[in-house]
Amino acid sequence: MIDRLIERIKETGAPIVVGLDPMLRFIPEGILRDAFGKYGETPAGAAEAVWQFNRAIVDEICDLVPAVKPQIAMYEQFGTAGVEAFARTVGYCHEKGLLVIGDVKRGDIGSTSAAYAAGHLGKVQIGSNLCAGFDEDFATVNPYLGSDGIEPFLKVCREEKKGIFVLVKTSNPSSGEFQDRLTDGRPLYELVAEKVAAWGETCMGETYSRVGAVVGATYPEMGAALRLLMPKTYILVPGYGAQGGKGKDLAAFFNEDGLGAIVNSSRGIIAAWQQEAYAGFGEEKFAKASREAVLVMREDIRQALESR
Fold first, then answer.
1. Domain of 186: which CATH number?
2. Which of 96, 105, 155, 232 is an active site residue?
3. Overall domain count for the chain
4. Is the confidence at residue 242, as pLDDT, over 70?
5. Across the chain, which distance is largest between two alpha carbons, in Å?
6. pTM above 0.70, yes or no
7. Among this protein's residues, is 195 annotated catalytic?
């Protein structure tokens, strides 16, 4: 899937992934009213609103970007109905030709990690049948239980030609409490990056590894150092837009070939209709506002890469 992702980035000219992380406050009143009218103010009603919101946005942006990244917690909070909305969203995005990065941040050991890998990327044996679970194309993985937690994902990636993005240096303000701690005189995130590069050598696509890394846009200097440590690693870059990352911060995450990174924006796109810059679209054209936000982001990244 890493080769397919690169192909789609080249086709769209947009190294962008749209984070489908819906909160009820992002959803227009009309959608909420219809969903609650059908299912009540219940988890099922909330899940229906999320699904209708996602579908409208996907319809508007599917020709502009290569991938989406639904954050599973935003769905799990609504229980089984929310998980069903997550699964429907993944399936619909695939129908629209989008690659799906499941932002699930799984990480465990042994059979538990193997079950996570099978459920999100692989297949599970049920009697005489092999059945796919959520069937995302990539998943985010937490490495802090060590190689025991990563190996089951690598196995599935090799079997299914899918991929993972391993948390290396995250965009949140407190990430440095652990990730920046020195070990043998070096920050921990650099040691994790070296492991990601080593894991990646065992799981290569044509030019880049199926093992990617998550490095926040809010730390561009660290991103530049990590880019050198992981030359064949695709970097998923969160933190653009609402978290403070800007186009000028992104150039260091890309290789000289203009590839090597894909930048995430979540509420900056899906909640664009609530921002002053896109207020003219109004509530009824919320998805059109999302499309315009993608176009603005694509141009911002293009200018940043051209000016480096």
1. 3.20.20.70
2. 105
3. 1
4. no
5. 60
6. yes
7. no
